[in-house]
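Recall from the previous lesson that a structure prediction takes nothing but the amino acid sequence as input. Here we apply that procedure to PGG domain-containing protein from Quercus rubra. The sequence below is the only information supplied.
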Amino acid sequence: MASTSKEKEVSSLPKEDGSQHDDAMQEDPESYKAVEVWDIDFILEKLRHTECSLLLERTFDSNTLLHVAAILGHDQTVEAILSIQQCQELLTAKNSSGDLPLHVAANAGHLPIVVKLLNRSFQHFKAQNSDAAIAEHSAMVDFVVMSHQYYELLMAKNSNGDLPLHVAANAGHFSIVRHLVNLSDEYHREFLRVQKSNGDHLLHLAANAGLSSIVQHFIMLSHQYQELLMVQNSNGDLPLHLAANTGHLSIVQHLVKSCHQRQEHLMVQNSNGDRPLHVAANAGHLSIVQHLVKFSYRCQELLTPKNSGDNIPLPYPPVDANAGYQPSVDLSDQKLQDRYTSKLLRVENEEGNTPLHLALIKKYEEEDSNLKTNYHEVAKFLIEKDPDACTDLNEANKDPLDLAIKAQDKELQQLMSNHLGFSEALAWGDAEMQKERNNSNMPELERVPQKSKDKVESMDPELYKAVKSKDIDFIKTQDPEHSALSDKTPELNSILHLAAASSDDDHQFVQAILEIQLLQKLVTEKNSKGDLPLHVAANAGNMKIVELLVKWSNGQLQDHSTCGPQWEKNMEGNTPLHLALIKKFQEGRNLALKAKYNEVTRFLVKNGPEVSVYYPNKERKSPLYLAAEAGDEELVKLMIDTVPLLPYGKSIIHAAIYYLMTITNLPYGKSVVHAAIKGSFTARKIDILSTVLTKLPHLIKEQVDTKMTPLSYASSIGYCDGVRYLFRESPDCAYKSDEDGFFPIHIASKKGHVKVVEFFLKQYPDMSELLNREGQNILHVAALSGKAKMVAYMLKRNELEMLINGKDKKGNTPLHLASMVKHPVVVSNLTWDKRVNLSSLNILNMTAYDVTLEFRDIFAFREQLTWLALRYVGARRAPKSVRRKKPQSSKLKKSDILNEYKDLANTLVVVATLVITVTFAAAFTMPGGYNGSGGVATFLEKHMFHLFAICNSIAMYSAITVVVALIWAQQRDLGLFDSAFRFAVPMLGVTLTMVSMAFMASNYLVLRNLHWLAYLVLIIGSFFILALSILFFPLCLPSSPQNLIARYIIYFPFYLVVKASWSDADDWKEE
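The prediction returns the following tokens.
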């Protein structure tokens, strides 16, 4: 019998690895061929006469006859096979992919066969499904009355973890899926909630494949399956994310409308931090973006400040799922709509991208012109909907305008440019903390746009003069509706800003302005710096004007629950209280001005206590932080005492402290306690620190994001009194390390605070054994940081002797580390201690001298001094047998090194040549000239002339020798250059010394008759010749003299050079 196409399909069933078998039949090929050609009589006859051996016969893919019949859609064959009692076990037989016949029938889309398979299940099936992997994969349910065995069959999974329902949905067989979903209410529907291995359940599959009918059916049963709308898969995607990504608008509409938690629904993030709106914008689906924006109004309360953690939804009244969308606010006001919408449009994913960023990025990356057009339209819609989003920066520090320029989209560039003139001030406003307040859902004060670049504001000159001179009569005679009273200066200052800037106590002029009803709105208008008139008044320290503005501002705000002007921030993130505090602490010794600002700050604290602790500026400093930092104990007490209680008895101070200790870029250790420590240290009194910790005792053990405790911070700034206080209050903090493994004693050692280290060792001597994550003790840390005084202190303490040659995890001793980072003073201190082992090896088999040579740069003075410090005490290299080889990469730098050497040699040649020129000329122009025509020098018999002639000759010939030696150094050989350089430098030192002595002698000869001047010349010359000798002396001596006295002689000039050119404070300042 010739093979048909179906025969090929069966006989070529794929193996598990994807390959195919040449022969798909083993024991009974006639039976399989009978199935292929629907030979029912043959099959029945075969089944009646076989002794169940057919049940055991399979293809190489473990497919039974029932699998093959189900794949081919031969329902009569399936009926014939299932009519035999012995064949019932085939219902639970799996092939190599873990598929039951039910799975393969569902995958092939044969609904009648699925129904037959389910209806033919027997009681013994239940006994077979103890295996957890029973297949629940092909959706085939008819209108028959189902038993529990059907439920267990439907719950069976194949090797991929798919139920029959999933298989049918993946294959797009809607009729099978519909039958499964339409199971009678009398029986279980838990299989609808079962998720695949990747977390997808049926609704995910339907949303991704665009199966609108299945989604609609779920919507009809939303009261039963509401939770499925909020289930996320392994990528964090909701069904809404998948539908938004694939562009199925009708499904998006159904999902959004039916969810009872619409606000949470739109704000759910996937693993990339993308909301559904991000996904739709990234995919370029304009209609879906528009629809999601429409439903965003009620989601605005969900947003929390950037990097603030979890979204916390506010309570809402219950929503009727069948009633459609019911807005909780009156959206008739278009401005209110736009403000609510912008909350969703400007939310960022983990990379800091808003939906607008994503649309522009995809437009730039996409090559298909049609898709570029789609992304263009999405971006255009988002810009028009919220122009302020044009100034948002992502994590790459790019705003949408930058991306539009990169994408070369001139239309979008023009569109953004048109909007930026009036939205930039708002865009850079710091609204994060405003959202965290209890009234974050209330309208904000009106913001005045930043001045346009195309049009500069100007105030009427007569009005400006009247304001400056406080001419009340002029203001009262003006008609508010038709005069220039609303004019602004180029910096967008109104007349109220100018009046509030007055530093005297006269507030009558401001009162007169505010009594004009049409000008009362000026109270809530900002200038180009984001300052309200209240900011200006607080900065000027005028108490009466501040009181007046607060009073009128609260009256201007009809909704008394709305936050007042004392909560508002300018472009620097400063509230009026910030400005008053900054000015107060800047005044220095002017007690009168300090008193004025103190009065203003106390008033603002009492009228807006939350601002004190809950509103950091862009430098991340709250008013409480500023007060603690400045050491103002009285003001700190006032701020803490006046903070009201939040619900459940929690003080707002706790929330503020938590915020301050978790946000990034806070100075001084990122804690109010750390600010208090600095304030106490600056003011030289412990009261401010005691005040904060008395009110907030739990903070003494708090570790901020660098894991630094208050004790660690006090140790880092060397505040010994603070260390004693904190140690007394919480001794166990001395054994708490920061994120780098540094304990407080390590930090003090690193900073060079000897008294703090001494205190710790006195209290707990065993703290000397504490190690950081690199296995380094306190002497390691001091040596690595270049703290020579700290190293000297430790070397003097006999109980710390075990630290001297201690090794870290890399085998480095303190001497290794000091040599590695080139601290010559520290190296010098260590090498002259007899207990230091100069031959100690690290894990790379390198001594400290090896380390110096490894990292040595002969052109750097620090490296040279460190090398000399080791050389003069006889430090040796490791034996060649254990010394590690230099890395191959070092050879690659040979040409660069030779070029540097050549430049250095050329410089020395120039100097030597100049000396030759000068000394040669001096030989023929003798001091005093010649005696007669015989050419004999006039001063030939004078001793100083003899000195001149000898020194000049030595200088001449030594300079010539230097030039010749350096000519050899030009041969591009590192060894030859090193030898030539070692010879030339000392010779050049001799040359310069001799030239100096010759000059001194010649001056003395011509000035000898004026004794005081001649002797002064000798003294000056002798002093500088001595200095020159000291500088050159270390370079001219042997590398490691054996005699101890010789070492001391060599070391003395070296030590003078080091001390003259270096200091402990200069040694390697902390980054």
